[in-house]
Structures are given as C-alpha cells and as structure tokens.
Design goal:
Layout (H helix, E strand, L loop, with lengths): L6 H24 L4 H14 L2 H12 L2
Helix pairs in contact: 1-2
C-alpha cells in the first residue's frame, strides 16, 4: 500500500502553494500599484485563473 499524506499535511501544502502563488502575482502588481490595490489584483487573478493554468502552477510547485 502506498503511503498517503495526512489531511493536515495536504492542507499545509495547499496553503503553502496558495501563499506562494499569491506572492508571485503580488510582486508583479506591487511594481505598479499601492499595496492594497496590488493585493486585490493578485487575489482576483488567482480567483479568475483558468483551471488548466492553475494545474500548471500546481505541477510547477510540486516539482520544486
């Protein structure tokens, strides 16, 4: 039987991924906008991202 990660580990890794993705987008927007506006744009970009693009970011995260 394969070893499966615990629920806590899965949640932790997902939170880590989400944070890193948001920070990546935030860095781009901070160059052009104030911090609050940059945060809104970064969240909106993550929320509106097409699923195939989101999956590619997940794969990239898992390969790090």
């Amino acid at each position: 039987m394969n070893k499966l990660d615990s629920c806590d580990e899965v949640e932790f890794q997902y939170s880590r991924f989400s944070t890193e993705l948001t920070l990546k987008f935030l860095q781009t927007y901070r160059e052009k906008y104030d911090d609050l506006t940059a945060q809104k744009f970064a969240k909106r970009q993550t929320d509106a991202m097409p699923i195939p693009e989101y999956i590619s970011y997940i794969k990239e995260f898992l390969n790090e």
